[in-house]
Design goal:
The structure is a homodimer.
Chain A lengths: L10 E5 H18 L2 E2 L9 H8 L6 E3 L2 H9 L4 E4 L8 H9 L3 E6 L2 H7 L5 E6 L13 H10 L3 E6 L10 H24 L6 E4 L2 H6 L8 E2 L9 H5 L10 E11 L4 E4 L3 H4 L16 E4 L5 E5 L9 E5 L1 E6 L4 E5 L13 E5 L3 H5 L4 E5 L5 E6 L10
Parallel strand pairs in A: 1-18, 2-9, 3-4, 4-5, 5-6, 6-7, 7-8, 8-9
Antiparallel strand pairs in A: 1-10, 10-11, 10-17, 11-16, 12-15, 12-17, 13-14, 15-16, 18-19
Helix pairs in contact in A: 1-2, 5-6
């Protein structure tokens, strides 16, 4: 099979050794917290990745589109929660999946939608706002009970997402968001139960909160997703160290400009995405950090003052400082090692936000730490309706 | 056939009436400037759009990937310039296309690559830096002539792109970049000719410079691309008015939050892209401007002081202020018209940068100004090598 030297660039490379480590880490967190793990597949969008993420777990997954639900069901996953506010016009497609045997659960925070869903035969979770203020009802408000009463027997539980963990400046605040997730979800479930409305599932989670939570007592499941692959933003949030980031973009140098201390690579705004999320953690992130084909820092020999040998190597940090459609422009604070870089040299880029980056690619070239490609895993991109 | 009420969201909508107007505008510019139009298809990535863009022109097109070259050749386009620095390992794929009859031209700014290309049988353009400082050689430098000598009979001409037109704060500076494009390209061509090296093609262009240039004397062709579809960034650059933007994202409301003066729609970071380019032109752009299903401003009745009737309607500007993977959050400075918006209401979003936005979608639902869908046009996304 091919190596990373042979495949066409730009391309997604998935290190299955790191993927496994990340999945084992989160499985350990679920065990430690005494909670079921329902991995969110919106990031990886791959049945092969889901196989690793659900190993040893109860088998349920989370998705963000009906296209994902259909794809994962066709790959043997039956217990699926579609964790984006449900649109009633999608009922025929959702019911078709349910008729085939899917245990599909959908979410809503809207009274009229709950009324429509009550008789549809799908299980419904009520979306709770735990402080992120994106979607969801107030766990202490009247709307929660109004939706619960509309849903009656269709109510499966409550669900919340501490998306504001991404805006936390430090670990203490991430832990506080984890507490807010738990408190909001448990409060909502308790209020429904107190009102005589059956509420089984109490679902919480984001990668930062599931990584750092101290206690999810009262919750039944957690739904992190980005942890499987990782990215620079998750590194900045301390969800995982850089050496566990499992997914990178393989790219080829297409321009060499020593006078500008610059390279151009064939991974631009489309192959990397224009997401800039990790720029808030560190200077010189741009659209991604650039390493060599083995995903190691680009090294060069530099004089280190006082070193016995007079010269040691230090890692050279390079980054994509500008991204147009098919061009990524790479630079560094130190001179780039032009003596070993030509047009055609292959590099690997760790992106800011892998959910956005991966979506531009049809699938993963899988490696096991080295350059040998041991497999190709497809992805379910898009929304699945267009017939061109 | 379907209407904009029936198709699944999120989806790209292409108004063919506006597309035609934009293509006729740029055809008129080419005629006025006395230059051939080689439309850049990297934005639209559609043979159907290329048909409109090349109508009445000489038939040549520009592309940014080999996947596009292969696709457009299979749709009858033979004269194709691949205007991204050529990677020699792509030679087998490029030569396969040439053997089928494609008049493929590639570009380089690199002496070793020129040496490899000299005997390959592809026509080569030398990439010139006209001040954008992305790629290209100095039109006055020695490297230009060195590459010209390496290429010998393979040299087809010179090519430059005034990408710095996108960074201009006003029209005068865009016109200055257009002059810089022309001057650099013509200077490079003249220097090659003076050195006894045949140089036929002098190729320039970006949508802002081709829209506003006063004189492209000495140039043989221009290669704008974004003008066909348009976007908020091009509106800010005065390449076209907002009512000529031809491509929007159709979306459905999935959450309604009157207390926060907010909607959530099902077009998020994937359907819109995380590009923020138009934010520099105006406040309250976010990830796109939100209109109703007819692409008209969301209106509401407001009291206008001194108006004879006491009340007239004024347009309501709404925008996507936050975009997560599948959620777009919409707000406005004025209260949103919640009396006519429910979960399921359809809206249309004009994005910042259509090259990035369109790439997330498999194709276009075509309308002719109204809601009736008159066709579905596919796109060639990605890089075309992955076999999952």
């Amino acid at each position: 099979m091919a190596t990373l030297h042979d495949i066409s660039t730009p391309a997604l490379v998935l290190d299955s050794t790191r993927l496994l480590a990340n999945c084992q880490f989160m499985a350990g967190r679920a065990a430690q917290l005494g909670i079921r793990l329902r991995p969110h597949m919106k990031t990886a969008k791959s049945a092969d990745v889901a196989r690793v993420a659900t190993a040893g777990q109860f088998g349920g997954i989370t998705v963000s589109t009906l296209a994902e639900a259909e794809y994962f069901f066709s790959h043997g996953y039956e217990d699926i929660t579609l964790a984006v506010g449900f649109l009633p016009e999608r009922l025929p497609r959702a019911l078709a999946l349910a008729r085939l045997g899917a245990k599909l659960k959908v979410i809503t925070d809207n009274v009229p939608v709950a009324r429509l869903l009550a008789d549809a035969g799908l299980a419904v979770l009520i979306e709770i706002d735990c402080g992120d203020h994106r979607a969801g009802v107030d766990p202490g408000g009247d709307e929660l009970l109004a939706i619960g009463r509309e849903l009656r027997g269709a109510l499966a539980g409550v669900l919340t997402h501490g998306g504001h963990s991404y805006r936390c400046p430090n670990m203490e605040e991430i832990k506080a968001v984890a507490r807010a997730e738990r408190d909001a979800a448990v409060q909502a479930a308790d209020r429904l139960r107190d009102a005589g409305i059956w509420c089984e599932t109490v679902s919480i989670g984001s990668t930062p909160t599931c990584t750092h939570a101290e206690d999810f007592a009262g919750c039944t499941e957690m739904r992190p997703g980005v942890y499987m692959l990782g990215d620079l933003d998750q590194v900045g949030l301390e969800s995982l160290p850089l050496d566990r980031v499992a997914c990178t973009v393989l790219t080829s140098v297409i321009g060499v400009y020593p006078a500008q201390n610059k390279l151009i690579v064939d991974a631009g705004g489309l192959a990397l995405s224009k997401d800039t999320s990790a720029q808030r953690h560190e200077q010189h992130i741009g659209y991604g950090v650039v390493c060599d084909i083995d995903n190691k820092p680009i090294r060069r020999a530099v004089m280190v003052e006082g070193a016995a040998t007079g010269s040691v190597t230090k890692p050279l940090h390079a980054w994509v400082f500008a991204a147009s459609q098919e061009h990524g422009q790479v630079t560094s604070d130190d001179p780039l090692p032009f003596e070993k870089i030509t047009v055609g040299t292959r590099l690997r880029i760790t992106p800011n936000h892998i959910c956005m980056t991966a979506a531009a690619h049809p699938g993963y070239y899988v490696v096991e730490g080295g350059r040998q490609v041991v497999g190709q895993w497809g992805r379910i991109n898009g929304w699945g309706a267009f017939q061109g």
